[in-house]
UniProtKB/TrEMBL annotation:
<feature type="transmembrane region" description="Helical">
    <location>
        <begin position="290"/>
        <end position="312"/>
    </location>
</feature>
<feature type="domain" description="Peptidase M56">
    <location>
        <begin position="92"/>
        <end position="276"/>
    </location>
</feature>
<keyword id="KW-0472">Membrane</keyword>
<dbReference type="InterPro" id="IPR052173">
    <property type="entry name" value="Beta-lactam_resp_regulator"/>
</dbReference>
<keyword id="KW-1133">Transmembrane helix</keyword>
<feature type="transmembrane region" description="Helical">
    <location>
        <begin position="40"/>
        <end position="63"/>
    </location>
</feature>
<dbReference type="InterPro" id="IPR008756">
    <property type="entry name" value="Peptidase_M56"/>
</dbReference>
<dbReference type="Pfam" id="PF05569">
    <property type="entry name" value="Peptidase_M56"/>
</dbReference>
<feature type="transmembrane region" description="Helical">
    <location>
        <begin position="6"/>
        <end position="28"/>
    </location>
</feature>
<protein>
    <recommendedName>
        <fullName>Peptidase M56 domain-containing protein</fullName>
    </recommendedName>
</protein>
<keyword id="KW-0812">Transmembrane</keyword>
<feature type="transmembrane region" description="Helical">
    <location>
        <begin position="83"/>
        <end position="105"/>
    </location>
</feature>
Length: 462
């Protein structure tokens, strides 16, 4: 299986696994929000992101379908292809890549527009003790720089390693300044910006997953709620919750500048009402304990993992049905072509020392009616599959498609006695090699010309 095929399956399966984890998170979030137990809602979104990142489903399928062979490893029919499946994968991968390029291009364009605005920022001088006391309380040693910008209408945090807080250009009362600093510094302390960046990266990759917009909205909204809760109930914030939200609502209607999602905004209009409703009637003493939060996170992991495994089994069953159906199409198509003249000669590798050898890795554990792949690209060279054991009176059927279709190649099999039997052909070539002695045989495609060809085909034992 080629790395490109593996990458396609990893992304496809990660999209499924992440969607499953997100579905369970939504159920957990709904129950916790109703009971006003908000502390662990946001951290559990990190588990959801992990299911989009780590190939849980792919690894499960590889391990569960693994069958060792005497000449390598075989990963079951799930990782074999027919021409129909190959074309379907190419079509889906092409659309997927084009979508990623489109979304990435749009994001880069808007981000650079935003960067040009930030270049007009200038240093914001505050009394040293205003910020340092909050930094000391939050046990933050990283240096944070403060700026002002005429185009910014809501305080925001930007930056990768060196974080910057950018304020609108206006005069602040002490209450407003302290509230904003607490909020934005807690954002930095809790790595909320990093969580959002991962979410944006995942959306660029899994743009076709319908849940990604909802996931990003929840990362944004619950990041703000987590920050609100921490400032009001876990710090020495000197004002009331009502005063905290009064500062946030001031100037809310003027917050109109486009901001990329990888920045945080204290006065974001889009989710402010929901933030307020979530914090209404919240009581810290009724919050879930640490043990309960860990237990709930473990339950989310277990449910997501087991459901992902079940979904993998369902995908495997569906894939194998499509594989069996399209394998029959290949077999039926093979009989339409004329039988070519078969040649036999000794196979001396000295004759092929200037030939490029391309390995089309497959299985040595092919059984009757199983289908193996032979594919690759070469100039003057030989594309060869792994050796397979074939019994007397069986046959090896090979069907290959050669591009460009006007290039003549040799398609054949090599036995353990270094004898090669082959036919000449071009375009789509099909041939059945009858086996008169039980032995190991290696399917090969040989290009004797120097011009580059691409081969995509399959073989099976009858």
């Amino acid at each position: 299986m080629r790395w490109s095929n593996e990458m396609f399956y990893i992304l496809l399966f990660n999209s499924f696994a992440g969607a499953i984890a997100y579905g369970f998170w939504m159920i957990a979030k709904s129950g916790m929000a109703k009971k006003k137990k908000l502390k662990y809602v946001y951290p559990m979104l990190g588990i959801v992101e992990a299911f989009f990142i780590f190939p849980v489903m792919f690894v499960y399928l590889k391990v569960s379908t693994h069958v060792p062979g005497s000449h390598g490893s075989y990963y079951g029919t799930l990782f074999l292809q027919t021409p129909f499946i190959y074309m379907a994968e190419c079509l889906m991968a092409g659309i997927w890549i084009l979508g990623m390029i489109f979304y990435l291009g749009n994001y880069i364009k808007e981000y650079w527009k935003f960067k040009s605005i930030l270049k007009k920022s200038f240093a914001y001088e505050l009394p040293a003790d205003v910020c340092s006391e909050i930094l000391q309380e939050l046990k933050m040693k990283r240096k944070i720089t403060l700026y002002q910008n005429y185009a910014v209408t809501s305080p925001i945090v930007v930056g990768w390693w060196n974080k910057k807080i950018i304020f609108p250009v206006q005069d602040y009362e002490e209450r407003e300044l302290v509230t904003i600093l607490y909020h934005e510094l807690v954002h930095i302390r809790q790595h909320i910006l990093e969580m959002k960046k991962i979410g944006i990266f995942l959306k660029l990759i899994f743009w076709c997953n319908p849940m990604m917009n909802s996931l990003l909205q929840n990362i944004d909204e619950w990041g703000e709620i987590a920050c609100d809760r921490y400032v009001c109930y876990e710090t020495a914030y000197p004002y009331t919750v009502k005063e905290y939200y009064t500062v946030a609502v001031d100037g809310l209607e003027q917050s109109h500048i486009w901001m990329p999602q990888m920045v945080t905004g204290f006065k974001k209009k889009s989710n402010f009402k929901r933030r307020l409703l979530q914090m209404k009637n919240y009581r810290k003493e009724k919050e879930m304990k640490f043990v309960g939060g860990v237990a709930l996170s473990l339950v989310l992991c277990v449910l997501s993992t087991t459901t992902t495994f079940a979904a993998a089994e369902g995908f495997k069953a569906g894939y194998e049905k499509v594989f069996d159906d399209t394998k029959v199409m290949v077999e039926e198509k093979a009989v339409e072509y004329e039988e070519a003249v078969e040649y036999e000669e000794s196979f001396d590798m000295e004759k092929y020392k200037d030939y490029e050898i391309v390995e089309s890795r497959n299985t040595s554990n092919i059984r009757a009616n199983d289908v193996g792949q032979i594919k690759g690209e070469t100039g003057k060279g030989m594309i060869q599959a792994s050796s397979i054991y074939v019994k007397k009176d069986q046959s090896i059927n090979i069907v290959v498609s050669v591009t460009p279709s006007d290039k003549t190649v040799r398609v054949g099999i090599v036995d353990s006695n270094n004898k090669i039997r082959f036919v000449y052909g071009k375009g789509t070539i099909t041939h059945e090699f009858a086996i008169s002695a039980s032995d190991y045989y290696k399917p090969v495609v040989i290009n004797d010309a120097t011009s580059t060809i691409s081969v995509n085909g399959s073989y099976y034992i009858n």
